[in-house]
Amino acid sequence: MKRGTPISGAVIANQNGSQMSYKNKCEMCGNINTSTNSVGIPIKGNKYTNNFRCMKCGNQQRIVIMGE
Q: Are residues 7 and 68 in contact, defined by beta-carbon separation less than 8 angstroms?
């Protein structure tokens, strides 16, 4: 079974088969966004990456989730 492991900027909310949901997490202030984002789980050894701006402190944050 594929799994996604957050490296930075995310908290996994749910994983189901080949899909996962995550919430944005600011590494600077610790704020976790209330909305979730759904994406496919990356295959083992690959990464899912994205960017977001923290709504609380304005920090530009990179999301990295590693496939396992």
A: no
